[in-house]
Amino acid sequence: MLPAVLNAYGFKEESTKLERIHAGLINHTWKVTTKGETYILQKVNDVVFKHPEHIAHNIKLLANYLQQHHPGYLFIAPLATNEGNEMFYLIDEGHFRLFPFVPYSHTINVVETPEQAFEASVQFGRFTRQLNGIATSDLKVTIPFFHDLSLRYAQFQTALSNGNPHRIKQSHALIKAILENDEIVSAYNRIKSNPQFKLRVTHHDTKISNVLFDDADKGLCVIDLDTVMPGYFISDVGDMMRTYLSPVSEEEKDFDEIVIRDDFYQAIVSGYLKEMKDELSNTEKKYFFYAGKFMIYMQALRFLSDHLNDDVYYGAAYEGQNAVRANNQLILLQRLIEKENVFANVVAD
Hints:
This protein is an alpha+beta fold. Helices cover 44% and strands 13% of the residues. It is built from 13 helices and 10 strands. The chain has helices spanning 2-8, 52-69, 114-130, 149-162, 165-170, 172-180, 183-192, 233-244, 262-276, 282-286, 288-308, 321-337, 340-343, and strands spanning 16-21, 28-34, 37-43, 88-90, 94-100, 105-106, 200-202, 211-214, 219-222, 229-231. The protein has a 5-stranded antiparallel beta sheet with strand order 1-2-3-5-4, with helices on one face. It has a 3-stranded antiparallel beta sheet with strand order 6-8-9. It has a two-stranded antiparallel ribbon with strand order 7-10. It starts with a helix and ends in a 6-residue tail after the last helix.
């Protein structure tokens, strides 16, 4: 498999070193070194991304737009094969693409400081702002209904009706917490019909590892663009809140460790609005805090639905893992809601 891929890019197997990178959860990734040059090779997960050609279309659209309108922006586009293809396809093995490696750059797996959160927020805001001239209708949807909270709530209701009866009974407290917060879904439905909310070029996966940093921990650009699609700003801001505000992830079982760090919230607001303050409507700015509730609640929904459906989507490394994850996210949601008055004026300030 890989020798054929390397050959497509003009690399000889005997003079090329491959090193598997295990950081990503979706795609398979290798570091490629040949003749003193370094590259990143990826195999696209075509179970998650059923139309990899849509990803290629979007990245080419973004690259061409940025080259024309913002040529100084660092955009990591795939390299072409010897035959000029930006994505190489092997019939049985799938889709591959090769990226240049940016010297003196690194990624961060867990956000540790408000400064890192600020830098990441600036980069995701800048990414959307600089692409504001692209008609979102020109973008392909790479994962249908990815952040559609209405759909996720409907899937949860289906799981309540058709899921594992024993797990449904055991999950009474979690189900009650979901139902008590369903105003978050109603708010999302109002957003979809509100002309003050604009569909923009949105990354949809704003964890810290999708930002490239330089040696001084300053943000360079965003990477991993497979989920770039039309979306609302609440997706990107909300995902930053969900993954930056607490020092622990959704896997944490000690729920006392789940806290909201005020300075990280301030960093997200300051960083994102540094780029997007003139792009967002006044109505959108009023929903900045809601963005965190939106994403945390949706992830709790997805974990709990999967638990009730016997872990068919996320799987489980131990019995009840998705119930733990759902509980974790619901506690994170509650911790955030408790801060609403504290954070009320942060965006305005």
